[in-house]
User: Fold this.
Amino acid sequence: QTHQKVVLIIDEYDAPLLDVVHEEQNLAALRRIMQNFYSPIKSLDPYFEFVFLTGITKFSQLSIFSELNNLYNISMYDQYSAICGISSDELHTQMLQDVERLAKHLHISVDETFALLKKKYDGYHFSKHSEDVYNPFSLIKAFASGDIGNYWFESGTPTYIIKLLQKYNVSLRDVSGRDASVEEFDISPENMTTALPLLYQSGYLTIKHYDPMFGVYTLAYPNEEVEMGMVRSFASNYLIPASGSNSSFVVKFVKALLADDMEEALIQMRAYLAGLSYRLSNKTERDVQTIFYLLFSLIGAYVKVEEQSAHGRADIVITLPNVVYVMELKFDGSADAAIKQIDDKGYLVPYIADGKRIVKVGVNYSSEERTITDWIIK
Assistant:
């Protein structure tokens, strides 16, 4: 009608494939269907100005687009790094009035609101020198509701991510902070041998640093919303207490901490773990470590919790305004041994200069009783 060329835009081209990415037989059949769907694009090339495809995964390396040999993948180019999100510059200029309105709703300053939005929704990087990109869905939901929430995860449970982590036997504590070459994470999910490619391509991990000397990227959670969403989703599949809920335990534990009552906090933990006993039978030390990681990650939404990141540091460090709890966990050992390790390894040293009261906490977990059995607080 217009004698002009057509622009073809296809969003979420990979959505049907993601539904069956774990099913080898169905994936192969659906791939053939998708190939037939996309094959006419090549024959219609004279009529197209350009074709633009979006998706979260890189299936294009395989036979879906076998006839489209002129596709140009712009995913990891700096000039396109903010094409699918809201950049920091856009937030501070074009969306300033939205931030000011949100600040009024939250009864905090505009600067505090910017800091809160950055912590919650910023942090996405898709190239070596990417702009800071905010999650547009969560950001706009926050403006519309006048409140800060975990909107991305509330919109749907990432079940395929949970299945993927289970398939490759990945501990959630090992997900973030990974160093990898581009060949390890920018590949088709059909070719992957680890969970890394899908975690990166679907936005659960993002680029935090690039080392040009070694050509290595550091991948980590983009922001607090994604990290807490992953922890809660994983916890709902891993922690199923006989009674009560994960949330009620966390609230009771944190309230005890804020009341400076570690004894009560550990009593609550012992009762909670006892409720998990039927799930913990025949579990290994690593399984128990995962449970503690999940619990203290959930607690970290309310107080500052640091988990062990290197040798010479206690298993758990909880920082409150006036006190620092340095905690060591033992599996079928003793609370005495845990306290001795804190002393022998000098775990308190990094916190002495803070001027806060420091409390040592040694805790033992018994595989026979499937809960924590003894602890020492000094």
